[in-house]
Structure formats: C-alpha cells, structure tokens
C-alpha cells in the first residue's frame, strides 16, 4: 500500500473519529406509561448510551394505573442493566377527563407476555412533575429532549405551573395522534391523545418544538414472522423479553384491526431519535379536539395546508419498517 493511500486512510479515520466525538449524546427525558411497547422503547433507548444520555424516566398513568406503569419502568431499567437512571412517578390521572386505561391491550399488569416482579431499585424521591420543573428550569437553553410515550399530563402540569421551562426544552417527540387512517381507541382518536387531550393542547400551545409520530406511521412499522424471528435470533435475555412481549401485544391489533402485523408504537419515537433518516414527514398545522363528543381527542392534521395556518408540528407519516427492526435487533444485541 502506497504512503499516499496510508495517509489518506489516516486522514479519513481521524475525520471519522472527530465526527463521532463531535456528535454529543442527546440529553433525554423519557415520559412514559409502560405498557408493552413503552418497555420495548425503553430497552432500545437504554441500549443506546452513545446517542442518548437519559437523565430520567418519568411515569404517568395511561395504559394501566400509575403504580404499575412506574413498576414496569423500573423493570425495564433492571432488564437493561441501567439502574443508575432515576424513575420518577408523576400524574396518576388526566388533567380533566375521567381516567381511562388499556389493560385489555397491555394486560392487567401493563406488561403482557412476560412475568413481572417487584424490581430491586425503588422510585426516585419526588414527583415527576416537580422533577420536570426543576430540571427544565435550570437546563442549558433548549438542551433537553423529551420522548413522550404516553398521555402528556406530566409535561402539561409542569408547563402550567412554570411556563418558562419551555426554554430548557430542545424538542418534544410524541407518540400520538392519528390522521390518515383514523384512531385506535375511537374512530377519530389515538389512545395517548384520547387519554388526556387537554394536556396535549397545553403542550401544543406552549410553542415547544414538536414532532409527532402518529398511527399514520406506527401502523406502517409492523412486526412480521420474519421480523420476530430476526429479534429472536439476537438470542439474549432482552431480545427474548421483547419477542415474548410483542407476541402477546400484537394479538390485539391483529385480531381487532385485521392488521398483518403488530405495531411497536413507542419504540418508533426512540428509533426516530437514533436514526431520523428512517422516517419522513412534514411541518404542518395541527389542533387537538378536546370537546366532548365523537371527535374527542382527535388530532386535526392539516396535511395539505388548506387552512393556511402556521405549522406547529413535524408530522411523521412514513417509516422504514425493516430499517426499524434492523436497528432494534442490533441494539438489543448490546444488552444482556
Ligand atoms: O396508541 C398507542 C399508544 O397508546 C402507545 O403509546 C401505547 O403504549 C399506548 O400508550
Ligand atoms: Ca405508551
């Protein structure tokens, strides 16, 4: 090999090294209602420390009651070997509407397909809403990303108490909403928005940089027998948990919506943070309907801009399903 080639290789390697050094991990808080797909999202995130510096996991009632969503977040942390990450419990009920749950989808324990137990490490002291206020108030300007995997109650309550915390937020990436193909909990609404539309309105009105991954995209990133086999082939404890969870979780959507595979809704948010190039969307204007009635909780997405209103959300509508499962498999392989 000529000296010139060697030097070119050395220059390339140092450039690559500099690039990887420059891409500092994203400061992240994961707000979640685990939930089967939430646990898959948490494992994916906790397996990716180079890209995601998880400051905390904050829990909210949603799929099941707060005590169980908080226990399940602690379980995911234990399974990922990341018990240094604090878990703060937050709101036990939505801001206004009567609480709803989805135990029929996620199981009575909120984690279908696997045995649960009481994790060793307890919750962090203090409420998640206060944690959000304290952390976002003192953060560098626009430095912290929030991955929002359940009802948006915790962040909404924090914004109501201290609106200026918006200055500490880089962006909020939400699993929620639905436009092109209708909802999953009602014909018009997706569960997370239906569970607390008032909270979603507060977050939207705050002016924070928002990205939504609605059912429009999560219903395109679906399991298949081959993809479940791909996950199983990772052949470690984490991948076995994910396969067992997904095999149980996807039954509801496949049986009730006639889908050929099951979605992994919340994990798409983490995949978006890790590899945004897997997804496509556009900036649009969106409003949330919180009026009682058949469209309660609907996200009214002006995809064609007919209202000529300013865009307030990046609406993700396409996703590379195989790329998602390749990423999930590769990252699960890093866990035990
Ligand atoms: O509609 C899907 C969403 O509702 C997911 O976040 C799932 O975990 C449930 O919370
Ligand atoms: Ca969720």
From TrEMBL:
Residues 28-326 form the Inosine/uridine-preferring nucleoside hydrolase domain. Coiled coil: none annotated. GO terms for biological process: purine nucleoside catabolic process. Keywords: Glycosidase, Hydrolase, Signal. GO terms for cellular component: cytosol. Residues 1-23 form the signal peptide. GO terms for molecular function: purine nucleosidase activity; uridine nucleosidase activity. It holds the Pfam family IU_nuc_hydro. This is Nucleoside hydrolase. It comes from Pseudomonas xantholysinigenes.
């Amino acid at each position: 090999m000529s000296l010139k080639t060697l030097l070119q290789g050395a220059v390339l390697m140092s450039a690559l090294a500099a690039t990887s050094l420059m891409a500092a991990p994203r400061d992240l808080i994961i707000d979640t209602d685990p939930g089967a797909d939430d646990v898959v999202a948490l494992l994916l995130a906790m397996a990716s420390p180079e890209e995601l510096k998880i400051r905390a996991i904050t829990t909210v009632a949603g799929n099941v009651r707060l005590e169980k969503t908080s226990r399940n977040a602690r379980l995911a942390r234990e399974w990922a070997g990341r018990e240094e990450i604090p878990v703060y419990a937050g709101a036990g009920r939505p801001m206004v509407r009567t609480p709803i749950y989805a135990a029929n989808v996620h199981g009575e324990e909120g984690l279908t397909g696997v045995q649960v137990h009481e994790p060793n490490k307890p919750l962090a002291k203090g409420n998640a809403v206060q944690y959000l206020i304290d952390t976002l108030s003192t953060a560098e300007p626009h430095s912290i990303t929030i991955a929002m995997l359940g009802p948006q109650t915790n962040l909404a309550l924090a914004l109501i108490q201290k609106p200026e915390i918006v200055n500490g937020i880089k962006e909020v990436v939400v699993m929620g909403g639905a436009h092109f193909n209708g909802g999953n909990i009602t014909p018009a609404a997706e569960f997370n928005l239906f569970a607390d539309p008032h909270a979603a309105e507060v977050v939207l009105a705050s002016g924070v940089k928002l990205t939504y991954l609605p059912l429009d995209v999560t219903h395109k990133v679906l399991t298949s027998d081959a993809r479940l086999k791909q996950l199983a082939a990772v052949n470690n404890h984490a991948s076995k948990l994910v396969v067992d969870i997904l095999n149980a979780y996807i039954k509801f959507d496949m049986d009730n919506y006639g889908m050929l595979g099951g979605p992994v809704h919340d994990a798409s948010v983490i995949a978006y943070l890790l590899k945004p190039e897997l997804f496509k969307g556009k900036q649009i204007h969106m409003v949330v309907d919180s009026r009682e009635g058949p469209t309660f909780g609907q996200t009214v997405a002006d995809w064609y801009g007919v209202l000529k209103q300013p865009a307030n959300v990046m609406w993700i509508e396409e996703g590379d399903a195989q790329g998602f499962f390749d990423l999930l498999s590769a990252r699960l392989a890093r866990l035990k």
